[in-house]
Amino acid sequence: MVRKPRSEMIAETRAKLVRAGRHAFGTVGYADAAMDDFTAAAGLTRGALYHHFGDKKGLLQAVVAEIDAEMGARLHQVSDRADTPWRGFVAECTAYLEMALEPEIQRIVLRDGPSVLGDPSTWPGQSECIRSMADTLRRLAADGVIVAVDPEATARLVNGAMLHAALWIANAPDPEATARKAVAAFDALLEGLLVAGRRPE
After folding, report:
1. d(CA 157, CA 130)
2. Tens digit of pLDDT for each residue in 58-115?
3. Sign (positive/negative) of CA torsion 121, 57, 60, 62?
4. Residues in domain HTH tetR-type (predicted)?
5. How far apart are CA 185 and CA 107, in angstroms?
6. pLDDT digits (tens, 9 = 90+) for 128-162
7. Could you report how far apart the first and last alpha carbons of the chain are, in Å?
8. Coarse DSSP helix, strand, coil percentages of the chain, rounded to the nearest 5 percent
């Protein structure tokens, strides 16, 4: 039998651990997820977890990064399907808020993530999110769709509002009702960026 390259074996081991950790964190939560249980589910040892991620917190960080990347890809698809850049921008923001209703994202990213990993605004993916949003705002301003605002400052403000709203939704007694209120309020805030007299399109 041909032996797999070491790099491939490492990638497979990491993927197994992330998959097992993601399942455990998503079903029972970070606090109740036992390392021996999810390493056994992956057919690996606790030593493999320590080697690749340091500890359970390191594994959570990897799981959050994976989910965050998937969220980003989904949001780009939402934006790409829109018929105008402005509608794509609004749809992407709305979709992000609505993702806070999904059980896995709610529990892992918006509840356990902040309590274990700290302020989400400092997580690595946030910098790329702000950069991408700033680029979008810059193009919308250049096309005369929105008022001339500093793109980075506006991206940081909009991103911060989205993150705070998502955390609010995820931790609310009635997430669906909270999401409806958040989306309606957010739409009104975004319309404030439009050039005066311009209809959303």
Report:
1. 9
2. 999 999 999 999 999 999 999 999 999 999 999 999 999 999 999 999 999 999 999 9
3. positive
4. 11-71
5. 24
6. 999 999 999 999 999 999 999 999 999 999 999 99
7. 60
8. 75, 0, 25
Q: Is the Cβ–Cβ distance between 38 and 21 less than 8 Å?
A: yes
Average pLDDT of span 22-45: 91
Q: CB-side exposure of 104: number of CA atoms within 13 Å?
A: 14
Structure tokens at 151: 């793109």
What is the Cα–Cα distance from 173 to 190, expressed in whole angstroms? 26
Opening angle at CA 72, ends 67 and 78, nearest 5: 125
What residue type is 97 in one-letter code?
L
Q: What is the DSSP string of the chain?
A: -PPPPHHHHHHHHHHHHHHHHHHHHHHT-TTT--HHHHHHHTT--HHHHHHHHSSHHHHHHHHHHHHHHHHHHHHHHHHHHSSSHHHHHHHHHHHHHHHTTSHHIIIIIIIIHHHHH--GGGSHHHHHHHHHHHHHHHHHHHTTSB----HHHHHHHHHHHHHHHHHHHHHSSSHHHHHHHHHHHHHHHHHTTBPTTPPP-
User: CA angle, corner 81, sides to 102 and 89, nearest 5?
Assistant: 75
